[in-house]
Amino acid sequence: MDWGMQNRLSRLIQKDGKILFLPIDHGYFQGPTHCLERPDETIKPIVKFADGLMLTRGVLRNCVDPTLDKPFVLRVSGGVSVVGEALENESLVTSIDEIVRLNASAVSMSVFVGSHYENKSLSNLAKLVDDCENVGVPVMAVCAVGKELEKREARYLALAARVAAEIGARVVKTYYCAERFEKVVDGCPVPVVIAGGPKAETQREVFDFVYDGMQKGAIGVNLGRNIWQSSHPVASIQAIRAIIHKGFTAREAEDLYNQNISKKV
Length: 265
What we know:
Layout: H1 3-12, E1 19-23, H2 27-30, H3 39-43, E2 52-55, H4 57-63, E3 72-75, E4 77-78, E5 91-92, H5 96-101, E6 106-111, H6 118-135, E7 139-143, H7 154-167, E8 171-175, H8 181-186, E9 192-195, H9 203-215, E10 220-222, H10 225-228, H11 233-246, H12 250-262
Parallel strand pairs: 1-2, 1-10, 2-3, 3-6, 6-7, 7-8, 8-9, 9-10
Antiparallel strand pairs: 4-5
């Protein structure tokens, strides 16, 4: 692995081997998502507790201070929206020159294994890996399932994660599944990061799946809505950070969350 690739990965993955990333890229297909209408205001109180951001070039340029000392993963797939016919019909929408110009620590794109657009999706991943390896930028493949939520089970996620890693992704982001999540991690030869998915019913539900996923081998999380749509975003991200970097259990994280709320953190 060359120096540039190692350097960028070391900025993403912390010294303890763990990671807490805050995605704010939802607008690329959802538009002005609830609590993300103003990305700059959303991240202001919570970004210091994250290890980095995941976002598009438009939000990076317009909503993030260039002096912010945080690595970022640049979302480079898109070209679809929730009102279109198929979320899976994504294209690469950011050039390698732009990736380098913006000084991205990594890039991300969705891969839709098992969809009608599977070949296009995986071919896009292969091209992105080729271009990014040439300039030392790691690629994070996001195992997406479009509107087919029933695919969020171990057999499918393990397949999608392994295929993405085989094509050359340096990191894989995938959904957590309560049953046999270790199958997903054990079958993937590169680090696995847990996606947040839809907003959970309770904070404890979030703490439970983060803790369990970490116990089963994930190196961290990439959580957006389950942090910035929380009633108490600062307390939420602090508790999640304690699970990832301090080894807190879900119960301990919930206690910390409640303590911070009582302090009006």
